[in-house]
Amino acid sequence: MFLNLTVPDQAEKWLGFTFGKNMVPAGSTSQSDDTLDLDRCIEAIADEKSREAFARLFDYMAPRIKGYCLKRGANPSEAEETAQETMIQVWRRAGQFDPARASATTWIFTIARNKRIDLFRKEQHPEVTADDLIQTMSDPVDAESRLEHAEMGETLADKIRDLSPDQAEVIHKAFFEDKTHQAISEELNVPLGTVKSRIRLALAKLRSSMSEYEG
Amino acid sequence: MICYHPEHEMLLDYASGSLEEEPSLVVASHLAFCDLCRDEVRSLEALGGTLLEEAGDAEMESGALDAVLDRLEAPDLADEDAAPQIADPVLPGPLVRYVGTGLDGLTWKRVGPRVEEARLATTNAKFKTSLLRIRPGTAIPSHTHGGREYTLVLKGGILDDDRHFRRGDLMLADSDHEHRPVAAEDEECICLAVLDAPVRFTGFFTRLLNPFLGGASPR
């Protein structure tokens, strides 16, 4: 069963603060010690076509995707549709999920982002895949980078809380409202240069937290 | 070695999904060449993942899970439409998938004595998106306009003042910047050009009054 974690020996020492942070409570009806590992759910979907794993993932992620779409200005039925369509895509694409490349929530974020663009802007979101890389870089798939991404998400969440209100505002507008930095400048009625410098400062702050783990 | 990159804000807009399809095509094509920007986009997407997790729950409609479970085994129409991947020596993967063909399958039209253009069909009419094929040493057609222009070099090079743009480099220009780019001497230059042209006339009849719409300066 996918919830019975087998942790690689060398990773055991990380358990307390790394795997632990990538697990989340599996919903209000569960036992308090029952946790949901998003990566394992996606792997169980890919390997065993586990509908049970899918249902757990759905319970956790679908309401968040819907919340994200509502914040981006979708009406409730559009947000519902995007959440459902995103989860169907998660089922279909589960075999492409690579925990060394992105955390589960990051991967699901990109699917939700593209679904929203597809359904409501009727546009594509051109993407680059690992096969496209013209100057290939070594990108080892190992337990360490998997830990790195899990931990990075957590550090980022802390760093986002540390941003100044001005900086947090532009980052939120970029992610949650369908606004380019140009449009943000018009809406906030501040010069484009100011928006750019807020974005740059915010990104520099966030980047400093990531580079600690990316070496 | 890639020297000229999209601005950080453009990568943020791309990662968050705010950037329109046509400039996104430029970014994705650049990412095929550029480790640095790919890492940045990955980090920004990680930020998106974190924000998604913290977005807050919105209750799903009752029966949503059952409705989705019923549809899991339905065929994926997008998969059936997907074109087989073509490897092209000049065009990066994101561009090949977008256009649905390699360089050989494009229809080129002469737009100057030493310049050919292949217009790409895209979603948003406000952008003019094309591939340009320019003979060595030729000046690139005048780019004075009211909007921004993104030019991604795919083959050869472009010289603009003291800057030299090579394969994978992105040249950004806006209306404030009067520039006279020239294709480098050593070989033909092929580039992806996306012009964010301000649309003056959008009605059917008024559009007829503006034959240069989407082309050079409508000013």
Account of the protein in words:
The complex is a heterodimer of chains A (215) and B (219). Chain A is an all-alpha fold and 215 residues long. Chain A has nine helices and two strands; from the N terminus they run αββαααααααα. In chain A, helix 8 (181-188) crosses helix 9 (192-214). Chain A starts with 18 loop residues before the first helix and ends with a helix. Residues 1-23, 25-33 and 136-147 of chain A have low confidence and may be disordered. Chain B has 219 residues and is of the alpha+beta class. A six-stranded antiparallel beta sheet of chain B has the order 1-2-3-9-4-7, covered by helices on one side. A three-stranded antiparallel beta sheet of chain B has the order 6-5-8, with no helix packed on it. In chain B, a hairpin with a 2-residue loop joins strand 1 and strand 2. In chain B, helix 1 (8-16) crosses helix 3 and helix 2 (21-31) packs antiparallel against helix 6 (93-99). The model of chain B is unreliable at 199-219 (pLDDT under 50). Chains A and B meet through helix 3, helix 4, helix 5, helix 6 and helix 7 of A and helix 1, helix 2, helix 3, helix 4 and helix 6 of B.
Task: Give a concise summary.
The complex is a heterodimer of chains A (215) and B (219). Chain A is built from nine helices and two strands.
